[in-house]
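[09:14] KT: can someone run the structure on this one? pasting the chain below
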Amino acid sequence: MGLIKAAAGALGGELADQWKEYIYCDAMDGDTLMQKGVKKTNDRSSNTKGNDNIITNGSRVAVNEGQFMLIVENGKIVDFTSEAGAYTYDTGTEPSLFDAGFQGLKDSFNMVGKRFTYGGQPENDQRVYFVNTKEIMNNKIGIGEVPFRDSEFGFTVKIQGYGNYSYRITDPVMFYTNVCANVENSFKKSAIDEQLKAEVQSSLQPALGKIALKGIAYDQLPLYTKEIAAELNTELSDDWTKLRGISVVSVAFASITVDKESADKIAQFQESRVYTNPQMMGARLGSAQATAMEKAADNPNGAMGGFLGMGMAMNAGGTNAAQMFAMGNNAQQQNTAMGWKCECGAENTGKFCSECGKPKPGADKWTCECGAENTGKFCSECGKPRP
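[09:31] RB: done, structure tokens below
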């Protein structure tokens, strides 16, 4: 009960007229995950009144690109192929199991498929199913106030947003066995949409937590879709890949924002951070002094009284705008003096080149357990923190 490859080009129109049964499946759309094969019987065959769920020995089966074909007997898989082409069904051969590079399919077959003695005729019920192996796209996903440790601000914010994810059936043997065995005609993605969506959303929090360890700011998440998809697959491995034979391909966020409480916290942090720059602080003081001078001139008790009050306030502050600007200039000169020139020719003052991203020569380096050399707080390859 195995498949034998037919001659090249056997998918031509004359195929259905030459064999006892010609079993095929038209192209499946993105909403169809599995479809039962259609049997076209030769009018000249003696099997024209045969059972629709019995495959006659010597029948021909056609497999198109993007399809994975399964032969099922009494609910158990007896053979399969993922290689496009035409095949002859022969009850006197062993299962051929053409996997076309799919990993783990033969192991899955050994675990859940039917092990039989070849050479006999079908027992009762035989069917041919075609699994859609193309990428299944446009699956909606939402993020609702997921905690995320932002590397830029150094505190946890709650992110929210929406987007899409896509997946692919990567182990059709497990998919058939555990998700949609023995369907009458077709299995649509709507049958499992809500379940998959719920599981993806519940796995987003730990997946994004691992992304946060790599020092990524929340507003940069749309740039790391491949990394997010990889972390999701890790989180979903037991329920999706191993049990159902499904893997996440990509994740795309249309919008990533933070809740109001986090937005207020970020605004306060950014405002206070501005004044750690002496020149920015000088600009703020200069603006305040100019406003004070205008108000002093309009003082109803006389301009002199207003200016005296302004002078007392400046003395109480201890520092004026000119002094802050001087401090800023000194800091800039010190930074310039400590600058370095990268191999690409760019002048820099920080730890990394602003043009090509190379680290400053002689910068403090450390080697991670994975073997990667780093200069920051986290490994650029695996994300582990510096010891």
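[09:33] KT: thanks! The chain has nine helices and 17 strands.
[09:34] RB: yep, looked fine to me
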